[in-house]
Amino acid sequence: MGCCWNRRCGLIAGAVVGAALALLGAILIPLGDGLIEETVLQKAVIAPGTPAYDNWLSPGGAVYRQFWFFDVQNAREVIEEGAVPMVAEKGPYTYYTRYLPKANITFNPNNTVSYLLPQGAIFEQSLSAGPEEDNVTSLNLAVAGAYSKLPKVMHPVLEAMIKASKSSLFQRRSVRELLWGYKDPMLKSTVGLFAPYNGTFDGYYNIYSGEANISRVGTIDKWRGSRSLSFWDDKYCNMINGTDGSNFAPFVDSTKPLFFFSSDICRSVSASYERSMDLKEIPVYRFGLLPSTLASPVDNPDNHCYCRDPKTTKNCTMAGVLDISSCQDGQPIYISLPHFLHGSSSLQRAIKGIDPNEEHHNTYLDVEPITGITLGFAKRIQVNMMYGPSKVITVLKKVNETTIFPLVWMNETAVLDDETAGRLKVELVDRIKMLDVVQKVLLGSGLAVFGLCLVLSITIRCSDDKSQTV
User: Fold this and answer.
1) For residue 146, what pLDDT is reported?
2) Is the peptide bond before 196 cis (omega within 30 degrees of 0)?
């Protein structure tokens, strides 16, 4: 009898211990989640000494800009016979960018931070298809630009300028000249796709630090001193929405789009969740641009205010291009995705050699969902210019229709370095995994011990009842 009683006491004690372990595991779930949330919210504020500040101040990995040029293969035939331009992609030519930390940082009383974003580019020969001295046959920037800006009554003047300078519709220039500038013989001034660049700044930016409201951390309050843009003739298109794309509010909801502003395209855009994946053993959400971003106003009425020239865009029915001349000091620049991805078929038919590919030409962000930090991205943009027919300008007399011509496409890309990935993995991912394991072990083992003791106790009691009956 004493032996049975001792066994029962032991089983009861085991059940109590099991129940206590299970209860502790259950308690740790909300307690642990709350602890993680509190820690993340504290460290996500952009303030000196926080991990978010260190990540915000300068990128955690090398940022590169890769350029692919559209090398014209039949320049003579286009000018003399009106042939459809044929291009061959040439590149990449890779530059190390964003290697300088943010400058002129000022913390303001209203929980915002002001700063300038320094711009610089260092050529990386080892990551390039050739040297900067490689030559490319491309659209003549000065001729195409002057054609777009001058009215038809001025075409005789432009014709005289072209002949006097021995210019043409196309020109052969080095990669360095096309990107960073050269003295044009017709305009007698410096011309270049990104000139000037080195030694310049983007901004001022004024963003929320998240100290008063963590849901607004990184959100742009002002750009160049204004809360809205002045490039578009519409309040909606002039809105500055979201962050600069380097970070978002913690605890990212995959069902909601992320908004960010890009000064390269002079507007705000949104990215939508595509899939979950691992980046260097860290779980991330991949967000990508939707085809509706550059859709024509016919398909996306929200884009009506981005259509500035009905003639060029076929009465605003053309998809895939954005006229940003108003934010480029009047330079006739059209932005698109590479190879006119998601653009109207007429854009692709007008140029032979265009081959859009969703995987290689779309823009995406890889965001760590707990902290909201962007750990990797690829921002892909194509720069285009326009030219069209003229009865006066010799090099344009054979041109049949207005053409949006691709010059170069750029892939600005970065992935966090191994050191940053390792630190984030240890400080965040591994701790969350360990806490999750502890919670599950305590809950699972506690329930198992409690259930086992309960079953054994019932078994012993039934056995004792049978013994007493006999």
Assistant:
1) 94
2) yes
With tokens 């963590």, the residue in question is 214
- Provide, for the chain, the percentages of residues in helix, strand and coil under a 3-state DSSP scheme, each rounded to the nearest 5: 35, 30, 35
Q: How far apart are CA 123 and CA 91, in angstroms?
A: 13
CA–CA dist 396, 298 (Å, integer): 31
Confidence of residue 200 (pLDDT cuts 50, 70, 90): very high
Type of residue numbered 18: G
Q: How far is CA 250 from CA 212, 283, 373, 374, 450, in A?
A: 14, 14, 8, 11, 38
Which residues does 13 contact at the CB level (< 8 Å), separation at least 6? none
Amino acid letter for position 342: H
- Cα separations in angstroms, 304 against 12, 237, 301, 398, 404: 73, 9, 5, 33, 19
- Side-chain-facing half-sphere of 370: CA atoms under 13 Å: 20
154's tokens: 């001025």
Instruction: Look at residues 146, 133, 119 and name the one whose alpha carbon lies nearest to residue 178.
Output: 133
Rounded Cα distance, 152 and 296, in Å: 27
pLDDT > 90 in the chain, percent: 63
- Give pLDDT, residue 20: 52
Q: Which of 355, 406, 348, 354 is nearest to 382 (CA)?
A: 406
CB-based contact 383:32 (threshold 8 Å): no
User: pLDDT by residue (tens digit) across 52-109?
Assistant: 888 788 876 789 999 999 999 999 999 999 999 999 999 999 999 988 889 999 999 9
pTM score of the predicted model: 0.85
For residue 235, is pLDDT > 90? Answer: yes
By the 8 A CB rule, do 363 and 379 touch?
yes
Residue 280 region by backbone torsions, left for phi larger than 0, else alpha for psi between -120 and 50, else beta:
left
Task: Give the per-residue pLDDT at 282.
Answer: 86
Q: Which residues pair with 283 in a beta bridge?
A: 278
Longest alpha-carbon distance in the chain = 124
- Give the number of other Cβ atoms within 10 Å of residue 241's Cβ: 13
Q: Return the percentage of the chain with pLDDT > 70, whole number.
A: 80
Q: Would you place residue 163 in the very low, low, confident or very high pLDDT band (cuts 50, 70, 90)?
A: very high
pLDDT number for residue 416? 79
Of 275, 262, 285, give the one whose Cα is nearest residue 371: 285
Tokens of 145: 């630009």
HEC states along 360-386?
Answer: HHCCEEEECCCCCEEEEEEEEEEEEEE
